[in-house]
Amino acid sequence: MKQAMEDVVNEVLSSVVQDVGQAVDRNVTGAQILQELLSAPWLRALLKIYERLMEFQRLMPGPLLPYASGLSLEIMSQLQKPHRPSAEARELYNLLSSPHIQALLSSHDSIARSDYGPVLPPLPDALPEDEEAIRIVCLVKNNQPLGATIRRNEETGEIYVARVIHGGLADRSGLLHPGDMLVEVNGSPVGGLEPEQVIQILINSQGTILFKVIPNSAQIPSSQKPVYMRAMVDYCPQKDPTIPCPDAGMAFSRGDLLEVVDQSDGQWWQARKLPCTTSCAAVIPSASMLKSKQREQWWCQPLHIHTCIRPLTPADHDDDLPQMQDKCTGKDLEEINFDQAESDVTDGIYLAGFRRSFRLWRRSSYGRRRQSCTSCSPNATLSSPYEEVLLYQRPPEENHRLIILVGASGVGVNELRKRLIKLNPSTFQGPVPHTTRPARAEEHTGREYHFITKELFEYMACNHRFVEYGEYRGHLYGTSTDAIHDVIKQGRVCVVDVEAHSVPALRTKKLKPYVVFIKAPSADSLRQTRRDSRVITNYSINRAFTEDDFTELEEASRLIEAKYKQFFDSVLVNDDVQDSCIQLCSIIQQAQDEPQWIPISWSRTEE
Ligand SMILES: Nc1ncnc2c1ncn2[C@@H]1O[C@H](COP(=O)(O)OP(=O)(O)OP(=O)(O)O)[C@@H](O)[C@H]1O
């Protein structure tokens, strides 16, 4: 019968498909779609399921009687009646009286009567209106922490759930909420105990933990959307005496990306570190909480005088960063024409920004002493501890993002930048620097440098038109933001090489910079890879790297990374120069064409 019914449906379907096929031949509009639909294997599978369901509905087995256990009792009493029961009767009696058969028959009767719910005693009539409901919560402890913190009301001694950690055991149970009052844990009353004593009870509990709680009636359901933040400071819960529960806290360091899942508490947020391996969040201080900690720390520190208002002494800005010293040993030296790049032109395009004096001023302390004061202001240390970010993909019609290369002196920033531009001069370009040095016969303004007067240079410096500037051998040199914009406006990718402390000044909505940190490889690898390399010195000569250079380079690289890593979007270890160049190309391509995290303020309409 079932087979016959299925055949009928299939037959009807086949004939419909046939008819539709004819309609397709006659080019009837929509017939093609209908034919594809009706011939789809899933439709036939669906019909089969339908047939099976119909069959089941028809044969639905019902109970023969709803009182099998009563019947068995009756049989057992009959079996006991004869004085000498037969062996079969005794066997049947033993079978029916066994606990398993009794339980089976009892279950049968419950199912037969569809009697599934527990029978609860009726509520007493005179129940007071304000009676607090007690909730019994049973959690099975595994290796994970419970995922909730508690606090004590100092006046009443009552213990409350302070917070429930997102994704933790308590949160996933959906049964414990902030503000719930704990009455008992595993049968022990907890009112009046210290939180540490309650925690001890929890630690000592094995397997199942039974909580008796009075639910928080004022609980507001939270449906917060996660917010993404970049940490701009380091934080360690174990070193924070104010955190309510250090074990529930999360350590993070500058540059870490945090998914903040709960900001309902003004002091303590909940977050996950990205990329995250666990669904469970942890507690971190809120922005305002961290700010007040920063303020406290700042007041406790010895007074920092602004570099910009200090008289002309060596800058303290990066005093802790070793500089590649001018060590002219007399051996292995190479004479170079002063202020000459190794090769200025490639494919008819001039490589600006590689001249020796321009590069050397940045090594001199005088150059660094004249930095703009933005990076040494106290506000820089007290700036926001978190930076809200979002995933941004550059629309193809928008300007390219500025690419900033940062690295310790001698690590190879210029080498990589030069190789990159030579590789594709129509795509990559550096900004043309400004100088007060007089132009030489073969030089053109706007090509090697923008040659300008000292007055104009100083006017531009006062108006914050330079990203970096300084003096070398009596002449001023600098990179202006206008020169960067000029490259970008031409539709090219502008690649600049600046000192790490200049990065914050370039972080604007207009430039949307992507910062690549060129990191020194290990001293061993430096020894291997820099065997034939030359360092430019303050003299008009190049010399081979020394052992001290490698040590200093490694140390300077480590310090720059530790101090500025919150600004780095990518880190590239400059080991083999060719590999590094390929990696840099792909990093830049991803920066321009793939989604990247940027500060949310760069995406807003107002600057
Ligand atoms: N991966 C590498 N392998 C071998 N040599 C390298 C590598 N990277 C750079 N060099 C060489 O090291 C020397 C210093 O590199 P570069 O001039 O690029 O330094 P820099 O980081 O720009 O520092 P500065 O700005 O102080 O000049 C150059 O001779 C360069 O060719």
UniProtKB/TrEMBL annotation:
Name of the featured protein: MAGUK p55 subfamily member 4-like isoform X1
Entry keywords, A to Z: SH3 domain
Domain Guanylate kinase-like: 400-589
InterPro entries: GK/Ca_channel_bsu, Guanylate_kin-like_dom, Guanylate_kinase_CS, L27_C, L27_dom, L27_dom_sf, MAGUK, P-loop_NTPase
SMART domains: GuKc, L27, PDZ
Domain L27: residue ranges: 61-119
Domain PDZ positions: 136-217
Pfam families in the record: Guanylate_kin, L27, PDZ
UniProt family annotation: Belongs to the MAGUK family.
Domain SH3 as annotated: residue spans: 224-294
